[in-house]
Amino acid sequence: MSQSHASPAQVNSPRTVLFASLIGTTIEFFDFYIYATAAVLVFPKLFFPSTDAAAATLQSLATFAIAFFARPVGSAVFGHYGDRIGRKATLVAALLTMGISTVVIGLLPTYAAIGTLAPLLLALCRFGQGLGLGGEWGGAVLLATENAPPGKRAWYGMFPQLGAPIGFFLSGGIFLLLSETLTDDQFFSFGWRIPFLASALLVIVGLYVRLKITETPVFQKVLDKHERVKVPVVTVFQEHGRLLVLGTVIAMATFVLFYLMTVFALSWGTSALGYSRPQFLMVQLFAVLFFALTIPVSAVLADRYGRRATMIQVSAVIALFGLLFAPLFISGSIVHVTLFMSLGLGVMGMTYGPLGTLLSELFPPEVRYTGSSLTFNLGGILGASLAPYVATWLATNYGLQYVGYYLSAAAVLTLIALLLTGKPKTAFAVV
């Protein structure tokens, strides 16, 4: 037992742990979002035939969806090693997978240069991005929550969640800067590649921090007690299948809301509503501040009142927001659109903050990496992979109000799943 206590004694300080979990997800989401932005602004013109602009946009959004189908694969692969070898080594591998895929996108030749091979290579890199993010998120959340002191698990668990608005802010900011400093010809000639290539520097910083961390005390206890399972993904499906399904649906509304407020809103705002690219990016960058500010607020509430109770309340608010979607967004006023974006992303922070902690609490430590990653990323398939595509189709064929109904329906399903999920029975404490 003395050896068992020796390892936890070497655990990093809270500041190191929280920074390591935050910097990694910031880099991962920066990489992920620069693709999302480019899928709307760049790829339809450079990587797909330009005969039909609407069809090119839909094809580009289809490649955007590929990563969400790759993410559960990444969850299973990286989750296996995260639950067998450890959180630290797996997090490093996931970050490298994501980073290399992103840098290669910045080096790809366009459709004009190599024809149909260009979108195929783009799709392959997008798959690599999804694979890496599928393994990154769960490990980052566990790095934080499995080091959290009693009563502060949601607070610790919100730090990797903060990587999402920070990554989004950085990605939107760099595209806005490029739009303001380069001509359209320069932007589409070489400027769009800069964010993808620049991510290499961020990955180096992330790797440096990740390599300095030690194993979490909770997983160290699993190692010391020889509680590892042979194939974690099989154990999750066989012994925790119900929680896997419920956790997936719990994550669904969060994904639908976010990708409607970012990818779809940018696409619709710069096309159907006629806003310029810099103008709408400025609105999104302002609104994402509310996303970042409400994440810690939700974490405080989740630690005080419980993760599940907080998520139930917020899911009801998302359902109501869906009914306001069209009236606010369809307005020709930039003030109303800014209010719409700020409200939507503010609510997004309220649901995103406790989500990682709640999903991780559904599973025992020996399969927690795999289980929490799978629920989050299967929720991505269910809620986000096709959200921009479905929303564009609904708005074009039936009107913008049906996009709001789509969001409300997703929130109701999430609410039902939360009500069906009992209080978590798994413990984090190291004894």
TrEMBL record:
Subcellular location: Cell inner membrane
PROSITE patterns assigned to the protein according to its UniProt record, in alphabetical order: MFS, SUGAR_TRANSPORT_1
Lineage, broadest ranks: Bacteria, Pseudomonadati, Pseudomonadota, Betaproteobacteria, Burkholderiales
Gene Ontology CC terms, in alphabetical order: plasma membrane
Species of origin: Noviherbaspirillum cavernae
NCBIfam families in the record: 2A0106 (TIGR00883)
Alphabetical list of CDD domains matching this protein: MFS_ShiA_like
Protein name: MFS transporter
The entry's keywords: Cell inner membrane, Cell membrane, Membrane, Transmembrane, Transmembrane helix, Transport
GO molecular function: transmembrane transporter activity
